[in-house]
User: What shape does this take?
Amino acid sequence: MTTATSHTTSTMRALVKARPEAGLDFDPARPLPQGSHGRRGEPGPREVLIRVHMAGVCGTDKHIWEWDEWASGRIPVGIVTGHEFVGIVERIGSAVERVEVGQRVSAEGHITSGIDYNSRTGNAHIARDMQILGVDRDGCFADYVIVPEENVWLLHDDIPDHYGAVLDPLGNAVHTVMSADVSTKTVLITGVGMIGLMSVPVARAAGAARIFAVDTNPHHLDLARKLGAEQTFLVGQDDNWVETIRAETRGDGVDVLLEMSGAPPAIDAGFDALRRGGTAAILGIPREPMRFDLTNHIIFKGSTVIGVNGRRMWETWYQMENLLLSGRVKLDDIITHTMPIEAYATAFDLLLQNKALKIVLDINGPTR
Ligand SMILES: [Zn+2]
Assistant: This one.
């Protein structure tokens, strides 16, 4: 392979959490990210410097923008934010073997040294030493990002850029759905925000027999039906939805609950709608510790409960690739906006007002 044209200068554009308060700052001249050996713009021996073309704005980024309790307790001020992207490899470290300059890539944003118990036993997504791109170290809302070679995902030619930029949340959806074994099962999704909506076609492609969805937003429910949910319920209007679901499922309740809301009342009602012996896969994160009826929801019901974090490395990524290439999972209705990185304030405004589902920031145009 020939060496790609080098665009690299000594500074770049970046969205930085520059101050311990709400908002992000656009820095037009941020020094390039640092490699593991400490030199800026140069990947360490086993790292890769990637020119970022498109990047997805995530719920996590909303928390970082708002500077809520979680964000202020975790995010180092001064960090470049963002963790979902597609780009082109610009430079590789001296010991990199698998990745080449010029390749079109995305990356797993959960970075581990690969040596703790979980990493060594096939569970790197819950490694003890995990660092998250754009949360614990400089991320991808910038012209360049550095990631370890192990984290690079070579993007299939037939997967378009805007899909490549949102593999992180799609992977959350795929991981959740696949952890619960939905084939031939009835499925309830509580909370059809961006990831809940992505879960609808994924569950459909994975063979779910029937999908129910509940949410507080009627537009999200319309889209859930368009994407393949059979029956949807609007909180505040269809308030007998648990009874309706039971009536539609022989009086038993659904086989599988996919909890995507993090809202305590939805979690409670979702478990009410789950049949005895059913499986609940939980991805939604409650804002604070919550009361939960362990006795009835789990013990007497004999429920199986699965907590879902990140994406399995790399099983989830292969599953995503297969699903996208099959044509059965399409994200065009979910990616509602693409806007230049300079319009970041508008993008966050739309997200915070729930006027957008998924926004992709265009940083360096299409990859090809
Ligand atoms: Zn994300």
